Amino acid sequence: MRGLTLLIFAIAFLLLEESAMAMHISEGLLPIGWAGIWFLASAPMVGYGLYRLNRISAEDISFKILVGLLSAVVFIISCMPIPVPTVGTCSHPCGTGLTGVLLGPAVSSIVAVAALLIQALFLAHGGLSTLGANVFSMGVVGSLAGYGTFRMMRASGVGLTTSGFMAGLLADWATYATTSAILALGLKGDGAFCPIFSKIVIAFIPTQLPIGVLEGAITAGMLGLLHSKRPDILVKMRLLKPEKAAAL
Amino acid sequence: MRIAMITIAMLIIGFTLALAEEKWAGVDDAVVGRISNEYGRTVSKPFIELEGDAQLFAFLTAGAIGGFGAGYFWRMLMEKKSK
Hints:
The complex is a heterodimer. By secondary structure, chain A is mostly helical. Helix content of chain A is 75%, strand content 2%.
């Protein structure tokens, strides 16, 4: 029944796509040189993520189940157009803040690659030439921002769900800031970087401010849910101390 | 709780469909595409070009598969706990 409920939510949001289209960088928008650079920039993290995924999965089979769950979650929410009533546009959360926290940034980048590749191939969402750029912004930077924010806040004594909220929020904003930088670098030609970067960031702000808050809520909610249902997973992923899980 | 969640989902559909006319463009049109066009870049054809309701169908199918997948893996995680 829970899966059915989740399915209904997925369908509900997808049916909202009256006019919303892709929200990643679409096919052909980046010059081929820059597109190649972003593939190269993403490659080290993705390669290390494959190594980590294989190594951890060999030690712990339940890790694969967690990766499967989060892959499905990232796939759904990263192609879920959410209308922002105050602006009249749609955008999507990324989900890589959540996966960065739960799986680590390297494995999170693999999840992003899988989601973005399927979307580019079958949904005309994003592009194949721009896959490297989209992976870099969402999978690399988004995951690192979420992971880093969460770790810093937890080290400062902030609670689990509050840290998760901030991780999701900043991961989303970091993703779109990086997307802005990628576009600015690709489009500026011989012109200056800052004016076009500022223009894109300012254009994103009205939509991404509330979407970032939503992503923070999703991340906090998922961490809270795992904390109540499967605290052992949080212990295993070193997000929670064993004595705190035992106290539940 | 289940009925509440389904009701909320239906309300969201109704709300946004009622308000959607020519608005609710994705940020790819509103931001990325618009600014890219100003600088002379245009969107190329995707790998599989989906027109009209074919894209709706593709997104719906993808969402359904993703939803089933998420529900399946969630159930596996919870069953592992109970074992």
